[in-house]
Design a protein that fits this description.
alpha/beta, binds S-adenosylmethionine
Length: 364
């Protein structure tokens, strides 16, 4: 059975776990440290733990941090059950009615009043940065906050894609045109159901170290990093493809952000349209690798970009590795075509990235 934590919360441009599994198996041994500095939903660190490796993860986006930390530092199911009972017993719906009324119209169309009061309560109570129990509950909510509610009763919202949060105006037009209303959902009931479903798989024994930071800041945490990071399996933002901050705006709101999409406040690197700025970010990534990786480390990078041919991407990535000031050799590369994007259903005609490139480098 596929481990049920993998799909805790979807994320745009996420790795299939088979990709990580193959490279972990090929390049590392049990006990080795594996790093993903752009961890997204945490596939690399989680798969590494399942395979008996040690894991370090980082991402600048709080949604990515929450989901990664939840799966790689999972508490026991009984602790989460106890916390849910306490939260449910303490809930006073009327206390959250003023906050509900003050939210922008999108929220009142997206969620039924009782459901929105529950969401607002949990948003105000969960200490997801401080407690792994609250973090797991928050990650469960992030995974069910929006999605195809007409086909699944586990989604709290009116009909939306599950991978990204569509923009408020677009969503409202869509619901109005299709005459769709927000379903009434019992959040605590759904959380209990999802919890039982996820914990049908045993959490891994090991725990990952997870940072919420810009990749450029990782050398500052060197004290907390182990000396020998043997392997990196990662996927930086693709050139001019998507903004995780915009795509995740509703989940970011749940984690304490503003009730509207923001741009370049969480991350300045999500969607570079300027090639110089993009390759500067990749150069910064290599500088960090040069500072923190062990001798003979392996680095696997999956990436892509609009307007580039695969060979141009591979050549540019290889050229940037020079700034690591280490000997870096491209050992293997592969190109694959991207198909079946869920967002196309909601944003017909949206032109994404047509292929992605995998590069395996060996560092001296
Ligand atoms: C392609 S996604 C990674 C997806 C991941 N492989 C997965 O399986 O979900 C790129 C990630 O880079 C993060 N990111 C963007 N700029 C960053 C930065 N300067 N430092 C760290 N993370 C950053 C984004 O938040 C996003 O989660």
């Amino acid at each position: 059975m596929r481990h049920r934590f993998h799909a805790l919360c979807p994320y745009f441009a996420m790795f299939p776990e088979g990709f990580v599994e193959k490279w972990v198996d090929q390049l590392t041994r049990p006990g080795d440290y594996i790093l993903d500095p752009f961890s997204g939903r945490g596939t690399t660190p989680f798969q590494a733990l399942i395979m008996g490796r040690k894991a370090i993860a980082n991402d600048i986006n709080p949604v990515a941090f929450c989901v990664t930390y939840a799966k790689t530092n999972a508490p026991s199911i009984s602790t989460i059950r106890r916390r849910l009972t306490i939260l449910e017993n303490d809930f006073q719906p009327n206390d959250y009615e003023p906050a509900r009324r003050f939210l922008p119209p999108f929220f009142r169309r997206a969620f039924s009043p009782p459901t929105l009061r529950q969401i607002l309560y949990l948003r105000s109570q969960l200490r997801w940065k401080e407690s792994n129990v609250d973090c797991f509950i928050a990650a469960l909510i992030l995974g069910s906050l929006h999605g195809e509610s007409s086909v699944s009763p586990s989604y709290l919202s009116n009909q939306m894609p599950r991978t990204i949060s569509t923009k408020p105006e677009y969503s409202m037009r869509y619901w109005q045109k299709k005459n769709m209303r927000a379903p009434r959902r019992e959040t605590f009931e759904i959380l209990r159901r999802l919890l039982n479903f996820r914990y049908a798989s045993e959490p891994p024994v090991g725990r990952a170290t997870v940072f919420l930071a810009d990749i450029r800041d990782l050398p500052r945490f060197k004290q907390k990093l182990p000396g020998r990071i043997a392997c990196v399996i990662t996927s930086p933002p693709y050139f001019n493809v998507t903004s995780y901050e915009e795509d995740q705006w509703l989940r970011l709101w749940f984690l304490g952000g503003p009730p509207f999409p923001t741009y370049r406040e969480v991350s300045k690197d999500d969607r570079h349209e300027n090639p110089t700025a993009y390759w500067n970010m990749i150069t910064d990534m290599w500088r960090v690798f040069g500072l923190i990786l062990a001798p003979n480390a392996n680095i696997v990078v999956r990436f892509g970009g609009k307007g580039y041919e695969p060979n141009q991407l591979i050549d540019a990535m290889t050229a940037c590795s020079v700034v690591s000031r280490r000997r870096v050799r491209l050992a293997h590369h592969a190109v694959s075509v991207i198909k079946n994007k869920q967002t196309d259903v909601f944003r017909p005609g949206s032109k994404g990235c047509k292929f992605e490139v995998d590069c395996h480098f060996r560092m001296g």
